[in-house]
Amino acid sequence: MDRHIQSPKSRKSPKSRDSLKSPRKRLRPRTLVIAGIAWLLAVVFLLPYAEMVITALRPASELRDPSYLPHHFAWSNFVNVWRDSTLGGNLKVTLLVAGGSTLLALLVALPAAYYTARIKFRGRKYFLLLVLVTQMFQPTSLLVGLYREFYQLDMLNSVWTLVLCNAAFNLAFAIWILTAYIGSIPVELEEAAMIDGLGRLGALRRVVLPLAMPGVVTAVIFTFISAWNEFVMGLTLSTVPQSQPLTVGINNFIGNYTVQWNYLFAGSVIAIVPVVVLFAFIERQVVSGLTAGSVK
Amino acid sequence: MDPVTCGSDGAKAVTAVNKRVLSFAAVCAVGTLTLAACGSSGGSGGSPKASGPVTLKLVAADYGDKASNSSTLYWNDLVKSFEAANPTIKVDVQVINWNDIDKQVKTMIQSGNMPDVLQTGGYADKVADNLLYPASDVLSPATQANVIDTFAKAGQVSGTQYGIPFVSSARAFFYNKAIFAQAGITTPPQTWDDVKADATLIKAKVPGVTPYALPLGPEEAQGESMMWELGNGGGVTDASGKYTLNSQANIDTFSWLKTNLVDPGLTYANPATTDRKTAFADFAAGKAAMLNGHPSLIQMSKDGKVDYGVAPIPGKNGALKSTLGVADWMMAFNKNGHKDQIKAFLDFAYSKENTEKFDETYNLMPVTKDTLADMTSSGKHADLAPFFALLPNASFYPLGDTSWDAVSAQIKQSIGTAVSGDPAKVLGDLQKKAQDAVANK
Amino acid sequence: MSQTSATPKAPGPGRGRPKPRRSGPGRFGPLPWIAPAILLIMVVVLWPVYEMVHTSFLRISTSGFVRGSAGLDKYRKLFGEPDLGHVLISTVIWTVAVVTLTMVLSLALAQLFNQEFPGRRLTRWALIAPWAASVLMTAIGFKWMLNQTAGVLNTAMTDLGLISGPQDWLGDPSTAWPWMMFVAIFVSLPFTTYTLLAGLQTIPGEVYEAARVDGASTWQTYLRITLPLLRPAFLVGVVINLINVFNSFPIIWGMTQGGPSSATATTTVFMYQLKDTDIGESAAMSVVNFALVVVMVLVFLKVSRWSEDEN
């Protein structure tokens, strides 16, 4: 933990912001060029998803046309895809899984991160190594083991299973980000609070947690996005359509003889929108949350 | 907790035939831990209450392409009426997408969580491990006799029938009449040289269209390659059932495809990565002129307003007399010992009303004599007439070979590279892998 | 980290009000704090890992039935696969190329988005789209756009005169690899850029002011000040990307399924392909795959002298 370079205080000091800003006001043409490039890039990043929306609006008869836009926009595709599939139920599963696993990961990661950040206990190194190793495993190679395990526990097709799995595979990142962030909070604040009569837990809740909010938000958004988009575990551990998450439900538009590209992408758009909106709301906090992680 | 041990007790208990004994055994077993661990995996159903019925676990493939025509609906309906007629048997239905069913079933078997009844694409690999009941154990004599003979035979491993055909289809040659007319072609091709000549004409006169769609991608390469091999008197095995993937006839077939269709650009640039879905979609959109198709392409072509024709598959020296027949299979697992309940269920499922309903829902062809007679004579299925005619002469994959599933997976994976690389080498490698698979039985 | 001394043992028997520093976490040792995390990791990650290693020593039929022990046969079979060599080479090229290009492009993007300009928030918002969307869907979307018959990218490139007609980009390994790398970079950029963006914000303005007073040029300032101070964030980006790109499955599976044959497969995709023919061999590939990623990350940490930062 390299705290000699700067503390969070200096990072956020208004003075440094001003000193960064002032010279830029003179560089107007340069700002325009930068804005132009940035806007162009933004368009490039959105194009693939725009094409998904366009395809989602193509009538089935125009799917093999190489035209940029369909002649008719089949808005009914969105209605059909919703009515004619289990996507409503799948969306509910995904919401529960993403929300539940985020909450669980946070509840488990927060105390571990707090302790690891504050205390050099024996085995701390091994604990951190275990966390790093967890990060290196990916569910794709563990599917058979996961299936066997949850079959033996009689927990297949259960939302709880997916909650547990998603929480576990995202735990490493959450612990890591939170450890780094809590580590950057001056310990003196906490000690003061404890002298004032709050116990460790009280200090954690009243002092550390509020200060660690950007780190918490970052861990939350990572876990949430990753659980929201998880595919292989959902596919393996839920075998009946009504208990499958959205990603798996969408996959069912890839049929035996045909791929219903328009429905497939309509479903994808439905799946993407909530996450983008959520992300847009808390974008700023993600940057400051990652800031601590990168100080490590 | 080891699931392998829980089946055996159940199996012993249930060998008795009497239904009362059965339900009694079930009641006794409920209390024990073993059964709780072996119980239905659904979790929702829970264990049966006192005097509770035996629960059969049915796993089936989904033939539908949307929720409103999913096979789940068919099976749920069927199970409802079956349960009404058989109050001591419950059926737990699990319908799985075709893309995933093989992997799912493998995982189930590996975990010891076997279904009682499975309906999917292949059966023989399960016979190798003694997982299945012979068909005669789980079908009444009447139902067994009702299965069309060629299919019943295709369900045999070493003379005993294990695979119970469920639905069938045959392949035929499809061509786009409008494109043919535009290119000035009047009759569908009979020989490979005809195919090449017609494709050349189409390429010259109808730009933007793939003259012949050759899908040798991993989705269905074993089917497309076998149809071409049959055209040259080759095939996957010889008469004695040994794999002959790199026979001279097969090597010649792929060399012909490479020099006459692929290299001149008369088909896709990379057949090895082109899946059948792409070929079908192109044909149904009027973007491909010829291909080897399947009854499902009829409806797709109609939806795409393509004026199509169906003809026998061209061979090297003349149209094929036989065609590639495909069947999907029903099988009964012996692990849970539910032989008699399975028999009751299958006899119910194979009744004429039920099979006909399924075949008509998905435009598939029957495997039972009564349904075939009905569908041929009813006049409602004129589209399928050319396919009905082909059925009796169909050739099959070596379905009864317990190593076929592994070999088929290898073929799907790499046979397509035979039309871009060296056919003799690619087929030689495949043959070697096939022999390894046989040796590893 | 040095302010709080380690107190792994419970405090003495004194029942009175413990000193703040010794209360709470110290009293029962680390377990109450980290046990839930360890438990979750053991149940959901380590148990299946054990199953995976165990499976790699088993003979399992294609139907999934366990036929007995295989000893080291599956490893022998795996190392005898003629395709394994080129799959390993492809994996190395894939990982190195994607991570390197991602890092370089992200440095530029972070610099760009760190400037003040009108609409910065909206453009940053656009940047997160590939992050928020499922990687599998993005890969399938690109596959669709590259479709030979109806792909919009083929249409656009033809209209722009870049190519003479629609091409089957993903069918030929020599064109499929660059496209898949493009997609892999595309989906890795948001996270990496955000990490570096966060790193840039930790650099205090005073440092730049000092550099300006010394008369350093913009480029010199970047090389001598920004880059070294960005090192921690950069290392984080590299490690996370190394792991993710090496393990990347959905991109390749969604676009080519590793085909033709296994010409566009990395070790992870190859492992999945082997599942269809031999489950034990596939598990052996998983074990080897994991060993590779561990070695790779440890070597990188060693080379980058990560531990020096720790102390």
Please, could you describe this protein's structure?
- The complex is a heterotrimer of chains A (about 300), B (about 450) and C (about 300).
- Chain A has about 300 residues and is mostly helical.
- Chain A has a single domain, classed as Orthogonal Bundle (MetI-like fold).
- Helix content of chain A is about 70%, strand content about 0%.
- Chain A has 14 helices and no strands.
- Chain A has helices spanning about 10, 15-20, 30-55, 75-85, 85-120, 125-135, 145-150, 160-185, 185-195, 200-210, 215-230, 230-235, 245-250, 260-295.
- In chain A, α4 packs across α14 (about 260-295), α6 crosses α8 (about 160-185) and α11 (about 215-230) packs antiparallel against α14.
- Chain A is globular and about 70 Å long.
- With about 450 residues, chain B is α/β, with parallel strands linked by helices.
- Chain B has two domains: about 5-170 and about 325-395, Periplasmic binding protein-like II (D-Maltodextrin-Binding Protein, domain 2, 3-Layer(aba) Sandwich); about 170-325 and about 400-440, Periplasmic binding protein-like II (D-Maltodextrin-Binding Protein, domain 2), CATH 3.40.190.
- Chain B contains 21 helices and twelve strands.
- Chain B has helices spanning about 5-15, 20-30, 35-40, 70-85, 100-110, 125-130, 135-140, 140-145, 150-155, 175-180, 190-205, 220-230, 250-260, 275-285, 295-305, 340-350, 350-360, 370-375, 385-390, 405-415, 425-440, and strands at about 55-60, 90-95, 115-120, 155, 160, 165-170, 170-175, 210, 290-295, 310, 325-330, 395.
- In chain B, the strands form three sheets. In chain B, strands 1, 2, 3, 6, 11 and 12 form a six-stranded mixed beta sheet that branches.
- In chain B, a hairpin with a 2-residue loop joins β4 and β5 (about 160).
- Chain B is globular, with a radius of gyration of 23 Å.
- In chain B, about 55% of the residues are buried.
- The model of chain B is unreliable at about 1-50 (pLDDT under 50).
- With about 300 residues, chain C is an all-alpha fold.
- Chain C has helices at about 30-55, 75-80, 85-115, 120-125, 130, 135-145, 150-160, 175-200, 205-215, 220-245, 250-255, 265-275, 280-305, 305-310, and strands at about 60, 65-70.
- Chain C has a two-stranded antiparallel ribbon.
- In chain C, α1 (about 30-55) packs across α13 (about 280-305), α2 (about 75-80) crosses α13 and α10 (about 220-245) packs antiparallel against α13.
- The longest helix of chain C is centred in the first third of the chain and has 30 residues, at about 85-115.
- Chain C is globular, with a radius of gyration of 25 Å.
- At the A-C interface, α2, α3, α5, α6 and α7 of A face α1, α3, α4, α5 and α6 of C.
